[in-house]
Amino acid sequence: MSIASDFKMIHYPRPPRDIVESAIDCYRAMGYNPFVMPTLYLVATPIGNLEDISLRAVRILAEVRLIAAEDTRRTRRLLSAYKIKTPLTSYYEHNKKSKLAYILERLAQEDIALVSEAGTPGISDPGYELVLAAIERGIPVVAIPGPSVLPVALAVSGLPANQFLYLGFLPREKGGRKRLLESISSEPRTIVAFEAPHRLPATLSDLLEVLGDRKIAVCRELTKMHEEVFRGTVSQAMAHFSQPRGEFTLVIAGYSGLREQKELIDFFVKEEFRRLRCEGATAKEAVAKLASVTHLSKKLLYKAWLELD
Predict the structure, then answer these.
(1) What is the C-alpha separation between 190 and 211, in angstroms, rounded?
(2) What is the pLDDT of residues 226-238, one digit of tens each?
(3) Cβ-count burial 42-80 (b if 16+ within 10 Å, e if not)
(4) Which of 27, 87, 267, 305 is the most buried (most CB within 10 A)?
(5) pTM: predicted TM-score of the whole model, two decimal places
C-alpha cells in the first residue's frame, strides 16, 4: 500500500463564480487591483529646487490614493507645480503616533505615498514607525529614490566621502551636544550633521572646543537660490557665519594624526604645563592657553594636565 493511499483529499466548497466575479468587478470599479497588495511608497522629494524630482516620483504621487506628508503646505506647492491632485493627510513628528492607525487602515485597501518636508522620508524625518508597522503587517514598502541632502553635502564638501558617520540633528542642549562630540572625538571617518541657524554659532564653538580646529564644510540652503558651501576650518566658519540664516548641513573632517598628537602632548604640551604650573597657573588657565596654541581639544589637554608627575 502506498503512503498516498492513506490520505483522503478534502474538497472545500468553492464560492459561486458569479459572487467572485462580482467582488472582483466591484474592486476594479473602485480603482483597486484585487490581485495586488497595496504598497507604501517612500517618495523622495526635492530639497530645494522643484526640478530635482524624478519622473517616477511624479507618476507615483499621481497614482496613489493618499499622500501622507510631513508638511502639507510645502507638499501642496510641489503637487500644484506638477498638476497632481492626490489628497493629502498630515503625518509629522507630533501626530505620527495618533495618525498611525488611520494610515494603516487606509493602507490595507489602497496605495499610499509617504513624503517628508524635503528629501528622503525616514532620514531624520518621520517615517520609521510607519515603515516598521507596514513591514510587520506584510505590506510591501517600496522606496522611490531621489534627492537627499546627506550625499549632496558630502559630494561638494571636498572631504573624504568613502566612509562617514551620520549624526542627524545635533542635541539642542549644550551639555548633550558636547557629550556627543566628546564620544566621537577620535572618530577617523568624516562626520555629517544637521543644525538649525539659531544654534549654529554655539555648535561651531563646541566643535572648536571639543574636536579642535578641524577642516569643515558648512553647506547652506543646498540646491536653493542662495546656496552656499563654505570650506575652511571651524574657527574660520565661526567668523564667516556671524548671523546665519537658512538650513545647514555640517561636514566635518574625521580625526587624524594619533601619532602626531601623542608626540605633541609628550614633547611639548606636558613641558609647557610643567612650566606654567611652576609659574602658578591653574589647570583652567594652562589648558585655555595651550588650546589656543595647539588647537587640541580642552578635554585632551586637561587629561594631559592630570597625567603630570
Answers:
(1) 13
(2) 999 999 999 999 9
(3) bbbbbbbeeebbbeebbebbeebbbbbbbbbebbeebbe
(4) 305
(5) 0.72
